[in-house]
Specification:
GO biological process, one term: fungal-type cell wall polysaccharide metabolic process
Shape: globular
Distance between the termini: 14 Å
Protein name: Asl1-like glycosyl hydrolase catalytic domain-containing protein
Keywords: Signal
Radius of gyration: 20 Å
Strand order of the largest sheet: 4-3-9-8-7
InterPro entries: ASL1, Asl1_glyco_hydro_catalytic, GH
Strand content: 15-25%
GO cellular component, one term: fungal-type cell wall
Order of helices and strands: EEEHEHEHEHEHEHEH
Length: 277
């Protein structure tokens, strides 16, 4: 199991002889705590923003990149696939590569961006030239329990190519979030899982002003503690590291670690000191 229990240390006591006391606090498993940055505005600043988050192991954003600690994400066109192939076969291949991000939904047009068939055709060159070092993360639909993944795997016959599944979860309370994650894992349980976006949001509810920082902090602490207890959850990416100022996104308007002026919110310190206990 990934859960790390608290330790008990036995120390000599001058009067009472030997006494057991609680020692070091539990700590999150290395690699579990990560963060998402939303762009493309100010994307060049993401490495500097990440430097304010020593509690995180890695970060991602919605464009390809190989900055330190960044996990690159492949785009959904031929040029993006070619770039990914060049990098994974190059002199410094990444350890991981995220593939298609929410191909089943375009938030501008409200249409499917990439059908399972088109995705299977588009990814074929990568399947044929994957390099020898990189582990590939499966596509992540916006609606994780839709038929998109099943149809994609049927089309490409490439389920075994991917090392890890991933999901995006936005629910207003931890119990609903855990239920959605468990439902996905009940169906797709032959690989580890990354939660590559999570926050206490919901597109059907309005954003409170000011954000309920105490409630969001509790959600964050609880979801990481629960994730720590599941050996099949390997990474959780908190969304978001930076406030989205170009538009309102109800999913992450309660959960940004840095505001639009790069000032820490009340969430940053608890994020950097998560114990997963």
């Amino acid at each position: 199991m990934r859960f790390i229990s608290r330790m008990s240390l036995v120390l000599p006591m001058a009067i009472h002889g030997m006494s057991t006391i609680e020692g070091a606090s539990a700590a999150c498993t290395d690699g579990l705590v990560n963060v998402v940055f939303n762009g493309p505005q100010n994307s060049s600043q993401f490495p500097q923003k990440f430097s304010k988050m020593p509690g995180a192991s890695n970060w991602l954003t919605f464009k390809f990149g190989t900055e330190p600690k960044q996990i690159p994400m492949m785009g959904d066109n031929k040029e993006a696939v070619k770039k990914a192939i060049d990098v994974v076969n190059g002199p410094n291949p990444p350890e991981y590569l995220l593939t298609f991000n929410e191909p089943d939904h375009d938030y501008v047009t409200q249409k499917v961006r990439l059908t399972p068939h088109d995705a299977s055709v588009l990814i074929k060159p990568l399947l044929e030239s994957p390099g020898k070092h990189t582990k590939f993360i499966a596509p992540v639909p916006a609606a994780q329990m839709s038929s998109w993944l099943d149809e994609f795997y049927d089309e490409c016959q490439c389920k075994d190519f991917f090392a890890i599944y991933n999901v995006h979860i936005y629910r207003g309370n931890v119990e609903d979030a855990k239920a959605e994650i468990n439902t996905f894992h009940d169906k797709f349980n032959d690989k580890p899982l990354w939660i590559t976006e999570i926050g206490p949001g919901n597109r059907t509810t309005a954003c409170p002003n000011p954000p309920p920082w105490d409630k969001t902090t509790k959600f964050m602490q609880d979801i990481y503690a629960w994730g720590q207890s599941k050996e099949w959850i390997h990474k959780i990416f908190w969304n978001t590291g930076n406030q989205i100022t170009s538009h309102v996104d109800n999913n992450v308007c309660n959960s940004y670690l840095l505001d639009g002026n790069n000032v820490p919110t009340p969430l940053l310190d608890p994020f950097n000191h998560l114990t997963c206990a």
